[in-house]
Structures are given as C-alpha cells and as structure tokens.
Write the structure tokens for this entry.
Amino acid sequence: MLVTIEREVLDSLNDEALGRLCIEDPALEKVLKKTPSERKQVYLGLTSGQRALLMFKALYGHSHTIGEFYWFINCFMMELKNWSEIKMGIRYFGDDEMLRIYEEIECILKARNKQLFDISINDLNSDSELFKSISPVYTQYQEMVPKTMMRIGAHIRSNLDENVNIDPRNPFQSDEIRRDS
C-alpha cells in the first residue's frame, strides 16, 4: 500500500509532509471506518516502516496539549499491544531519546494509575503533583518531536522502496535527495 509520487515532488517535501504522505494514503483513510479486524489486516499489510510511522503519528496526532498527551498515552497503555507497537515503532527508527521519553512517561503513569481504567483527561487539573511530574516530560516530548521527524524523514529517504513508489513516467532521477526542504 505504497503511495506513488513523482521524484520532484518527493524531493520538495519537508520531513513532516513526507511522513504524512507515506501513511495518509486514501486506502488508509478508509480503514479508519472499518472494524477492528479489518483495521488489523490493513495494518499487517503495511511495511515495517509504515507501521512504525503510523504508530508514531498515532501518538503525535493526539498530543497537541499536555492533557491529550496524558489521556492518549493512558489509552494506548490500556491496549498494551498499541503501546508496545508505539515503542517498537520508535525503536525501528533508532530514536533512543524519544524511547526514553516514552518509558519515562510510562513509569510515571504506571505509578500514578494503578487502575489504568480510572483516568480522566481532567486529572492534570485536579492533581498538581501529577501535573508537575508530567509537565517536564511533555516539554521534552515537544522538544524532541522535530528531531524525531527529521530522523524519520532521513530513514524514509534512505529506504524509498519501503515507503513510496517513484512514478516511473517521470524521467527525472536524482542520485541525491534534498534534505533541506
């Protein structure tokens, strides 16, 4: 399920847009409306790189605020397979710094939420100690995201066959892909 793109367009994309392109194929968008078993089949049909990218984006797309970050990591942790896949995805890209952040927040949440099902997005408003423990980790996460996206972009550009199909009708074939976009 690789998207086909002209080389010139690929070369013009920044890392975030390139990552989005690799997983926002129309077929993937349709799968969101499918049953869990159908979604699983589509997920298993992705390349390893696409799965890793999708899991990174799943958390990234739900971490615009500290409350979302807290809530969605708890949700992913409730589904241990999802949390495991998110961590495996970041390992796939060799991003030990982001993995450390994931593991740090995991430890905080496990210690705080003995009952993972007893959480609320408002917990940070009512529990100042929890907020104080999560806030620096969320700040680290926000600071790390651009570096992670650069790492992912470099990985995609180095492994095009796993992430995109280059449109063969385009005669332009560059040996070097611009990385400054």
User: Anything to note?
Assistant: The chain is about 70% helix and 5% strand.
